[in-house]
Design goal:
The complex is a heterodimer. Chain A is an all-alpha fold. Chain A contains 12 helices and 2 strands, in the order αααααααααββααα. By secondary structure, chain B is of the alpha/beta class. The chains are: A mainly alpha, B alpha/beta. At the A-B interface, helix 4 of A face helix 9 and helix 12 of B.
Chain lengths: 364, 399
């Protein structure tokens, strides 16, 4: 068993929220708005429902194979060869996603705050800091997250309250101008974020009480959905059509704050959310990648894999994308189907296989 | 133990090496207070005029009253806004720091060509704030930026105060870059910006040989509005039309409505606006769109010329309210007439129709340019006069 730590139910909920929220609140408003326009808030409701379904699938799989992580039950479920192939695919998915997260965090710093600082500097800093967290183990990561996530949520609420005088309800009308279809088109690239729920399958065995995993996962998804909804509505109300062109809607939002010429330029709040939330998010995916690799190779320890994985992540996040536009505008169109296949299609297929072949316990 | 000591020392040195990669000390920055942009010649170049703050001049108590300035004005050309901005460093010797700027004035010539060159960078660059005021000069922006604004040591901030002063009179739109950018996203709504003019006061300061710093020889005024079609300046609104526009937008906060006293031959009454609101109701009847604008204005009587009318008479009072409503309607009519003449939907009537009638709108959107100039606009003003302040009748035996 490479991981000996145990986490509480609340820690699991928070881990899930931190695995999705930090980057989703920053990018998704623009991604969704490009398609759904003033109806974007409806897309978020669809997304949350989708996230809940993903949570149910993840929990059902976990319940059928108690004490096993996603990578471990691939073998018994799909056979040794196929299981190993799928496991490798899952590890590649984790590493690719993490490279994407690291790069997008670094791009924010370069684009919005320190344009002359080289990109690798941020990438290596983020990778190194999270490598340390991952080496410290699951319990340490969970406890750090227990401090950081509430702070992030409180800061978000403060920002929304400060910007509320600028909100214009007319930005939500006309509802359903182009029918229902754009709502689903807006939700589609964003599903990648909500399908990240699947990484909980790596944590279920380490819960104090794995039987109650389902409730904790759904709770985490609902936290994400609620805050995503709030941010989506706030950015729509304040920015309107400008939202579609924005790289960092939450930052643009924070920059609009001006209360009595006194409280202005509160983007350090957003910076705080990115630095801390991004660090935890990277840490979670990093941890999953290292643990999944260790279990895939049947190693006793995952810690030896942390630094090599970190180096791989740093390099990948630098070389995979030429520029930022490629990531925010082109990548969502190109990689969404593959990502969804790995995150949502695969678990669904596995659950179906488990049910049909009667593999694993019933979970009752 | 040795390793721990080394680590501690290493961490300790961090205390003395803070800061970020591209940190710049304050004295290495030329802090801009505001920009002016003009076209320079016919080669597509633009001229940027910048007011750079001189922090040394900002000390309290040292400055002479009036004319002391805490800015230096530099001017430079370039092919684009950014290009010109960087070229400015050739004159200032320091890179321009933009985050503290409050206003951008664009010259009429450049505005007629299109101000997209300026607005895009404001939208894009991380250092600029889209909360900066956007003003269009009726003339050269350079001249505006070079003018001493007596009330403020940092002249550009004085211009910003002049824009904010609209809260007292409602005769200039307080348009920030973000408002302009939001509006230009619309397919039909025409953006506006505050206009700034440069009247010369003849016989002032310089001619009498006085210290030109004490009495401003000329003072700039922010009044009226510039109307755009997309990024290009299409025309101007005068003060009356501008307030008409702001009535419809619901952005009149205060101001004075002068009316002629009822019955009195040419006695004038000032009515102060205390609060105002507006509603735009689009309608479609028989496939023909129309718009009803409802204004609610509450105010008080500010002054009245003695010996004209008896304001304690309820009939007179009602009559005055009607006259106030007619005066406000007149301002809106003027604005609508000018907007329709320019074929620029500055009120966002098209957007109002889109929100209310999304289905019917689809067939109107592409021919809005043909519909808008003839769009029937009904105006309903509900004007109330609530009080007469400290006294009832003006001093005198009465009419």
């Amino acid at each position: 068993m490479p991981e000996k730590g145990k986490i509480s139910g609340r820690q699991a909920t928070f881990l899930l929220a931190s695995a999705i929220l930090p980057t989703s609140i920053l990018y998704l408003p623009a991604t969704i708005y490009r398609e759904s326009a003033q109806d974007s808030w409806m897309s978020v409701i669809i997304l949350t429902a989708f996230g809940v379904v993903m949570g149910l699938i993840t929990a059902a799989l976990g319940a059928r194979f108690p004490g096993m992580t996603f990578v471990q039950y691939l073998g018994p479920l799909a056979g040794r060869v196929l299981g190993n192939v799928i496991g490798l695919g899952f590890i590649i998915f984790l590493i690719y996603t993490n490279a994407f997260i690291i790069r997008s965090l670094a791009e924010i710093f370069v684009n919005m705050f320190m344009p002359e600082t080289p990109l690798p500097f941020f990438i290596i800093s983020i990778a190194f800091a999270s490598a340390y967290a991952v080496r410290s183990g699951l319990e340490a990561l969970s406890r750090v997250n227990e401090i950081i996530l509430p702070l992030i949520l409180i800061l978000l609420i403060i920002i929304i309250l400060l910007i509320s005088p600028e909100m214009q309800m007319k930005n939500f009308t006309p509802a359903l101008e182009k029918g229902l279809f754009p709502i689903f088109r807006g939700a589609y690239p964003a599903m990648v974020f909500f399908a990240e729920t699947i990484i909980m399958s790596m944590f279920i065995p380490y819960l104090n009480n794995p039987r109650r995993a389902r409730g904790h996962i759904i709770c985490g998804v609902l936290i994400v959905g609620l805050f995503q909804f709030i941010i989506m509505a706030a950015t729509t109300a304040v920015l309107g059509p400008r939202l579609a062109r924005s790289h960092f809607p939450a930052l643009t939002l924070a920059r609009q704050v001006s209360i009595a010429d006194l409280i202005e330029r509160i983007e350090p709040f957003i910076m705080f959310i990115w630095v801390t939330g991004g660090f935890v998010k990277v840490g979670i995916f990093f941890y999953c990648a290292a643990l999944a690799t260790a279990q895939w190779l049947n190693l006793r320890e995952y810690k030896a894999l942390v630094l090599p994985t970190g180096a791989l992540l740093s390099v990948l996040s630098l070389v995979l994308w030429e520029n930022f536009l490629e990531m925010t505008v082109q990548a969502p169109i190109l990689i969404t189907p593959y990502m969804l296949l790995a995150e949502a299609g695969l678990p669904l297929l596995l659950l179906a296989a488990a049910l049909l072949r009667g593999k694993g316990g019933t979970g009752r | 133990m040795t390793i721990r000591a080394c680590l501690f020392l290493l961490a300790f040195t961090l205390l003395f090496s803070p800061g970020c990669w591209n940190r710049v000390e304050l004295d290495q920055r030329a802090i801009a207070a505001g920009f002016g942009a003009d076209r320079a010649g016919d080669g597509g170049r633009i001229r940027i005029t910048v007011q750079v703050i001189r922090p040394g001049q900002l000390k309290v108590g040292q400055a002479k009253p009036g004319g002391s300035a805490a800015v230096t004005v530099y001017s430079c050309t370039g092919y684009t806004f950014f290009d010109a901005l960087r070229n400015l460093a050739m004159a200032t010797g320091k890179k321009i720091f933009i985050a503290e700027a409050k206003v951008v004035v664009i010259g009429e010539g450049l505005a007629r060509e299109g101000i997209g060159k300026i607005t895009d960078m404001y939208d894009r660059d991380h250092e600029m704030s889209t909360r900066n005021f956007l003003l269009i000069a009726r003339g050269e922006a350079r001249e505006v930026m070079e003018t001493n604004v007596a009330a403020e040591k940092i002249w550009a901030y004085g211009i910003a105060h002049k824009v904010k002063s609209m809260a007292a009179h409602g005769k200039a739109p307080p348009v920030e870059f973000r408002h302009f950018l939001n509006t230009v996203e619309s397919k039909t709504t025409a953006p506006v910006a505050a206009a700034v003019r440069l009247p010369r006061i003849h016989g002032g300061g310089e001619e009498k040989g006085e210290d030109p710093g004490t009495i401003p020889p000329k003072e700039i005024m922010v009044s009226g509005a510039a109307v755009f079609r997309r990024y290009k300046l299409a025309g101007w609104l005068n003060e009356k039309e501008t307030r008409g526009l702001l009535w419809v937008a619901g952005r009149v906060k205060s101001g004075i409505v002068p009316i002629t006293a009822p019955g009195g031959d040419d006695g004038l009454v000032s009515l102060e606006i205390i609060s105002a609101g507006s509603k735009v109701r689009p309608e479609i009847a028989g496939g023909k769109p129309s718009v009803t604008v409802e204004i609610r204005a509450v105010g008080s009587l500010g002054d009245i010329q003695p010996d004209t009318v008896d304001i304690t008479d309820p009939g007179i009072w009602n009559n005055m309210e009607k006259r106030k409503a007619a005066a406000i309607e007149g301002e809106i009519r003027a604005a609508v007439a000018k907007a329709q003449a320019l074929n620029a939907d500055i009120f966002g009537f098209g957007e109002a129709l889109r929100r209310q009638f999304p289905k019917e709108w689809k067939s109107m959107e592409y021919k809005w340019d043909e519909i808008f100039p003839g769009l029937p606009v009904n105006i309903k003003v509900d004007a109330k006069i609530r009080g007469t302040m400290k006294v009832t009748k003006p001093a005198g035996p009465g009419p």
